[in-house]
Amino acid sequence: MTPKEGEEWERSHYTPLSERREQHAMRHAHIFLIVGALVALGLFAVPAQAAPVICEKFGSTTIQNGRYVVINNVWGADTAQCIDVNQSGGFTVTQAAHNKPTNGAPASYPAIYAGCHYANCSTGSGLPMQASASGFGSLRSSVSMTYPGGGTWDAAYDIWFDPTPRTDGQNTGAELMIWLNRQGSIQPVGSPVGTVNLAGGTWQVWFGNSGWNVISYVRTSATSSLDFTIDTFYADAVSRGYAQRSWYMTSVQAGFEPWIGGAGLAVNSFSFGSGGGTTDTTPPSTPGTPSAANVTSSGATLTWAASTDNVGVTGYDVMRATGDTFTRVGGGSATSFTDTGLSPSTTYRYRIRARDAAGNVSPDSAIVTLTTQPGGGGGGSCAVTPTTQTAWNNGYVIQPVTVANRGTSAMNGWTVTFPLPSGHTITGIWNATYTVSGGTVTVRSLAHNGSLAPGASTSFGYQATRPNGNTQVPSGYTCA
């Protein structure tokens, strides 16, 4: 997702990413530069496969027998751009006459990718793949890049997720961007929400929404290469409530967004697949029994001893139950978790499981049982105000849904409920978790936004589909 200055710019001036990157790309056949060959009386042969130079705005080609697709994709400008495609797995921007203002969208996104993007699919990628599939945890990608000394640009992965296994059209789940480097006064869409250590580096996490969730990881110290499991970053996005395990990954892309210049930007190598070498089938060890602390009427903090693994633990799942069925309510790479939005005077049971990079899952830990305190909300008075950001024939985005403490004492976690009209389906939510039961949606706060001082407020948002021609949006919100 490209940078922006302020929420209003994003909404009114920034074309959604899939449209701005590829809205015309599928209208054009793959463009190949015909490389001249000396042919004299049959003594010289034409090369079987030449690496093309692509200068057409939306031109693309495949390399390595279709394993990857390379796209020029000058979606945001009419200035010239050419890329020299490397059959071994990359490309170099050889010409880029861009000069775009940095408070707007970039000129292009030249990239290499595996998977499907607007029906332009590589071969053998195994995508789309559901993020809950057993093989998802073993998916890896690597990239090596070269950067020029001048210009204004970012170097970023762009990884797409959709609630369905679609191979064409706009993805409406999540867009996960991983910024290895940037040059100039540019930033991702949205606003920073935290910092995390992943894949051997420290990343500032940004969140925004453009009709789908946009989660950007900006490396605090630039790097020219990265080798990582996709789930390293996706698990973090899931733990923050910005993505869901039921969604499908449709493509993994790596490239550049130039505003000014861009010549010299290069992907030297790119790979995507289920790792290499010997398959890891060893699960992590059982996590330690969780212990509960800071139990209030609406929340509790769990801690546990770390698991070990022959390769490395990538994250933990926190499972919660009030009856016999355990449901994942959060997790991440840390060995602690604060659960919020609980009901007063209610008994909850928790257990923990660990995951590694190959998708192996540990045995469940022993169970800890706790009972929340009576009362609720710390004596605060909760108010909720929804806003319809946008609506179309068969869907809508509600954001912000503002949750405010109108009382005189602190709130320690909040819960918002509302009826979902018949035929409507929530496809994504951000800054909160949710469940749907009997047509009632229950939204709960996360660890970072559950505590509200008197007069303070926070917000969440969600996207939903509805039957064609139905103009309803939810109403009747209540907050506790």
TrEMBL record:
Transmembrane segments: 29-48
Record keyword Transport present: no
Pfam entry (one): Glyco_hydro_12
Domain CBM2: 375-480
Ranges of Low complexity composition bias in the record: 279-291
Region (Disordered): 275-295
Originating organism: Nonomuraea monospora
Record carries keyword Ribosomal protein: no
Family stated for the protein in its record: Belongs to the glycosyl hydrolase 12 (cellulase H) family.
Keywords for the protein's UniProt record, in alphabetical order: Carbohydrate metabolism, Glycosidase, Hydrolase, Membrane, Polysaccharide degradation, Transmembrane, Transmembrane helix
Protein name: Uncharacterized protein
Lineage top rank: taxon: Bacteria
Residue span, Fibronectin type-III domain: 286-375
PANTHER family: BLR1656 PROTEIN, XYLOGLUCAN-SPECIFIC ENDO-BETA-1,4-GLUCANASE A
